[in-house]
Design goal:
Chain lengths: 468, 277, 296
């Protein structure tokens, strides 16, 4: 036994020393990378500046569309004195925002360019993590000559009126529907509902006629689906009543209103009449994927209130390849509650490239952003990821419009609304999710709204809330 | 007759209960094991149409996974060794000398053994930034060591209490130093305890994804636990077979550690000594 | 122990040698463990946030995080859930089941002991995240349990949705029972057989032997084990997070999950650390309670 123990100690000791070595070598390797490339090229005498781009990698690494895109843009980038280095953060969507916030805090960890979701952009800007770009944008022709769709600039403008990022994609939301199921239920294959009632009526018809096992309508209604519940479901409904989350004129959050009640009542109706998905499926974090990757392609779902990007799943190399989606799916606009003007509504989100305040190479980063987000590469990126473009010139390009639904999804953007550019929005959003889930599981809309009012008041303070 | 029956029941009953318990413990493992060799694994439990090793092969041949696995091993083994070495040293005076503050020190240590580390991760992150240890594998090992050392000291002190001091004194008479006494006399007698501590700390960090998740940034430094967590969260829900295979492979080191040390484990779990000291 | 102190040889050794032995451990604990705990305490009185206006400059906000905590109904729900989870899975589940297995296994066939023991241990050696996956697929809508239930002619149940708390309690029992089993096996092995046999000869029933002799003999082990299991269970995060994420609703939101959500989903680090402190305080109170009952 003693010999065995000694041997064990030896092995572990050896492994420990390896681990120490490993720690050193791995950091050395990192330092060596620029040096190595310099040696390979041989000619450049100045040390290359490394521009780090941080984005979210959902675990597929070098297969990811963003990684490939960065590599492609970097390869053709004329300024060879900088090296463009992808430094992905591997995390789920929710975790990504926490991780970038942690990274942006310090000079040691901040990248030079970061991809920011427009919903968190304002918070990060208020935190002082991001560099305002107004001065730089003034000198960029693309920005001033209308190449960027004007409405899209709102998404990257923070509450202080400054611009903190250059958008590279956006999205719109609407009602995806399965034309085959609609046909079977005797509903029009070219469906344009004019009000919420018509949506509910279609769902009831499907429940009656399309047979068992088919979910009439799917909306994300749980806390687990996070921002998808707030934006794709609740805000699409609330904004459709003509009301907003935040009153810009008085700078107050609206915590009590008929619009909130109407939106919640719609959700209540779906669940009371059992027009929605089983709660065990919709109240977990995978709900969004279950709907878009399983139920919809398998013909088990008739209507889905979801984002324009879900078709990305159906591409050949997507998560759930489904070549027939072009013919089977329709994409109807989400009507306003009574069909009042403007008739339909959509919320737009999207992503932008921003420069962290803690970046050491702001000018070089800016030059690269200008190059990467010109027409050519923006177009490549949105096509590869199945997103909608923010550039007017790309929107007209046949290479872009030939993709199914691109044109129609871009069309919906003309009524697009953005989420409030308030740094408290992410916190308010989690209260929205709590409220929606409460109604879904049987709380009355009035009670749920009352709790929402209390929670939001606690978060933003008594002076920043109002009733309507 | 009646008494005989009763006796028979009392003999069989424990076996029956234990078999039932064992079945309950076995069932949750079924899916992972079956799905890992199923070419078309789904979330539901079903007999595979075709048994395949492809899931394992895919997971094992991926250099990314190999790297994560190796890093995980290095972290956990490195931590286990450091904890045993440091805790053994610290346990010695606590076991052998009458110290004024010992009682409260030991109680503090006992309390610290199980503090939820989730609770302190934010300050730890800040600390790591200021010490330039962020995104450094060795830094993660250090934190692991710090968080499991209380447990190591507590367990080893109790083990050491049960090692008689005559042998050690004999060694001193022969001219050995205190340190040599520990190394040559006390430690060899405490192999069960050392193994228990090593295994415990090993599996603690091997299974932890939260600490590396907060303290590391570069994907190439991620240990297996974190890779698996992401696998689980991201597209694990699609590639069930690979997810299951990865899970099984990931569980292997813990199982190996256990099997290697099984002979000491039962002894290693005596807590009685701890309260007598 | 006290006899050791009086020992001449120990006295001859330099009195402060022990100090050197403790330094490395104490230093590493101070820097990486105690200091962060103190910082946690400090941050709980600030508006520390990950992002948003508050992230710009750190401000003292007095006890407002604590005020918010006592006004927040979700905190009460989380405390309640934590206690249910604790009592269900640790105090009753792991402790009682672990003891039962150890007791039943006593003096049984060696091979049988080994097989059953290994199966129970499988849950323990399996890393947390794999446990979560195993139990998630077990309780899932199309999972093993529903396959069993339907084969008996019953209808499927959405376990994770209808009885989420029960599923995470069972998951934690599955994961943790082996620890208590090992502890009690070791303790039961220490109980001198002669005493028990003598009692049987005197006409005591099995139950009497258990309650009057065996249990009192291992009383200290029970208390210590109770404390360790309690503290471990208080901190369970990954298992619950991966299985239910604290939902549906707040039905499985325990304090660690709630703290995580506040700190890393709502980005309110200051509030999150105040909740961590609450969690730590619950641990302290329970520990003191156990330690006191051990002294009696």
């Amino acid at each position: 036994m003693r010999i065995g123990k000694r041997r064990w100690m030896l092995i572990t000791a050896a492994l420990l020393s390896i681990s120490l070595l490993f720690g050193c070598t791995s950091s050395k390797n990192n330092n060596n990378t620029p040096a190595n490339t310099k040696a390979e090229e041989g000619k450049t005498e100045t040390v290359k500046k490394v521009i780090k781009i941080t984005y979210r990698d959902d675990g597929i690494g070098e297969e990811g569309a963003l990684y490939k895109w960065i590599k492609e843009v970097a390869a053709s980038y004329p300024n060879k004195n900088v090296e463009i280095k992808p430094t992905p953060i591997q995390a789920s969507e929710g975790d990504y925002f926490a991780k970038i916030a942690l990274a942006l805090k310090s000079k040691d960890t901040a990248p030079d360019i970061v991809t920011e979701d427009t919903f968190i952009l304002n918070s990060d800007a208020s935190a002082g993590y991001l560099e305002p770009l107004d001065e730089k944008l003034k000198g960029w022709e693309d920005w001033t000559n209308g190449s960027f769709i004007e409405a899209m600039k709102k998404g990257v403008t923070a509450s202080d009126g400054k611009v903190y990022g250059v958008p590279y994609n956006t999205d719109s939301r609407g009602l995806w529907y399965n034309k085959e199921i609609f046909k079977k239920a005797g509903l029009p294959e070219n469906w344009v509902p004019a009000s919420w009632d018509e949506v509910l009526q279609a769902a009831r018809t499907i429940k009656e006629k399309a047979g068992d096992g088919i979910v009439p309508i799917w909306m994300n209604m749980g806390k687990a689906t996070g921002e998808a519940t707030s934006m794709q479901t609740y805000e699409m409904l609330l904004y459709g009543t003509g009301e907003r989350l935040y009153d810009d004129a008085s700078s107050k959050w609206i915590i009590n209103s008929q619009g909130i009640l109407d939106a919640l009542t719609f959700i209540e109706t779906i669940n009371k009449e059992k027009l929605g998905p089983p709660l065990s499926k919709v109240l977990n974090g995978q709900a969004g994927n279950t709907a878009s990757r399983e139920y919809l392609p398998q013909g088990k779902l008739a209507i889905s209130l979801d984002g324009s990007w879900i078709t990305g799943n159906y591409f050949e190399d997507g998560a759930s390849p489904w070549p027939e989606y072009k013919d089977v799916l329709g994409f109807a606009p989400m009507p306003t509650s009574q069909g009042q003007a403007p008739g339909s509504i959509t919320l737009a989100g999207g992503w932008a490239l921003s420069i962290p305040s803690n970046s050491q190479n702001k000018d070089e980063a800016w030059e690269f952003i200008k190059y990467a987000l010109g027409k050519e590469y923006t177009q490549k990126l949105v096509i590869a990821t199945g997103n909608i473009t923010v550039r007017a010139d790309v929107a007209k390009d046949p290479g872009y419009t030939q993709l199914p639904f691109n044109e129609i999804a871009t069309e919906y953007l003309k009524n697009a609304e953005f989420r409030p550019a308030q740094d408290k929005y992410p916190e308010v959003s989690t209260q929205i999710q709590t409220m929606v889930e409460a109604v879904t599981t049987g709380t009355s809309p009035a009670d749920a709204m009352q709790k929402y009012a209390q929670d939001v008041t606690r978060i933003v303070g008594k002076d920043h809330v109002m009733e309507k | 007759m009646n008494a005989k029956h009763r006796k028979a029941i009392f003999r069989i009953l424990p076996y029956t209960i234990l078999v039932l318990i064992a079945i309950c413990f076995l069932l949750p493992l079924l899916w992972v094991l079956v799905a890992s060799v199923d070419a078309n694994a789904m979330q539901s439990l079903k007999m595979p149409n075709r048994i395949t090793g492809a899931n394992y092969a895919d997971v094992m041949t991926s250099p990314v996974n190999q790297r994560a696995y190796l890093i995980g091993l290095i972290m956990s083994l490195g931590q286990a060794v450091l904890v045993v070495a440091l805790a053994l040293l610290a346990a010695y005076p606590l076991s052998r000398y009458q110290l004024k503050f010992k009682k409260s020190f030991m109680l503090t240590i006992l309390f610290m053994t199980s503090l939820p580390i989730t609770a302190v991760m934010v300050p730890v992150y800040q600390l790591f930034l200021s010490l330039k240890l962020y995104d450094n594998i060795f830094g993660v090992i250090l934190f692991y060591v710090a968080s499991s050392i209380p447990y190591g000291i507590w367990m080893l002190k109790n083990f050491m209490d049960s090692v008689p001091n005559d042998l050690e004194e004999a060694a001193w008479v022969d001219g050995a130093s205190v340190f040599a006494g520990i190394r040559k006399v006390v430690a060899p007698l405490m192999v069960p305890g050392i193994c228990t501590v090593a295994i415990f700390t090993f599996s603690g960090s091997w299974g932890n994804f939260f600490v590396p998740y907060i303290l590391l940034q570069s994907p190439e430094k991620f240990p297996a636990s974190l890779k698996l967590y992401q696998f689980f969260g991201q597209y694990g829900m699609v590639e069930y077979g690979k997810l299951a295979a990865f899970s099984v492979l990931y569980a292997v080191p813990s199982i190996v550690m256990y099997v290697l040390s099984q002979q000491f484990m039962s002894k290693g779990f005596g807590l009685q000594g701890g309260t007598k000291g | 122990m006290s006899s050791l102190a009086g020992n001449v040889l120990y006295k001859k050794r330099k009195t402060y040698t022990w100090l050197y032995f403790l330094i490395p451990s104490i230093a590493i604990m101070l820097v990486f463990f105690v200091y962060p705990i103190l910082l946690t305490f400090f941050y709980s009185f600030t508006n520390l946030a990950l992002t948003g206006e508050a992230a710009k400059e750190l401000k003292f906000v007095g006890i407002s995080n604590y005020v918010r905590m006592f006004e927040d109904p979700t905190v009460r729900v989380s405390i309640w859930n934590t206690l249910v989870f604790l009592i269900g899975s640790a105090v009753i589940g792991q402790q009682v089941l672990g003891f039962l297995i150890a007791l039943l296994m006593k003096r049984k066939n060696k091979l049988f002991r080994r097989v059953v023991g290994t199966i129970v241990l499988a849950g323990w050696v399996t890393p947390e995240i794999v446990c979560a996956l195993c139990l998630y697929s077990f309780f899932g809508d199309e999972g093993t349990l529903n396959a069993i239930v339907t084969s008996f002619g019953f209808t499927e149940v959405a376990w994770l949705f209808t009885v989420p708390m029960l599923t995470i309690i069972l998951a934690n029992i599955w994961h943790g029972t082996a620890f208590s089993m090992l502890v009690f096996q070791a303790a039961l092995d220490d109980v001198p057989t002669e005493i028990e046999e003598a009692a049987v000869v005197d006409g005591a029933s099995r139950w009497q032997v258990l309650t009057r002799i065996t249990l009192p003999y291992i009383k200290d082990t029970i208390t210590t084990n109770m404390m360790l299991v309690t503290l471990q269970t208080l901190g369970v995060f990954g298992l619950i997070y991966a299985m239910t994420g604290g939902g549906p609703g707040t039905s499985t939101t325990t304090l660690p999950i709630f703290m995580y959500n506040q700190a890393f989903v709502n980005y309110q680090l200051g509030y999150g650390t105040a909740i961590s402190l609450l969690l730590l305080m619950i641990g302290v109170v329970l520990s003191l309670f156990y330690i006191r009952s051990m002294k009696e």
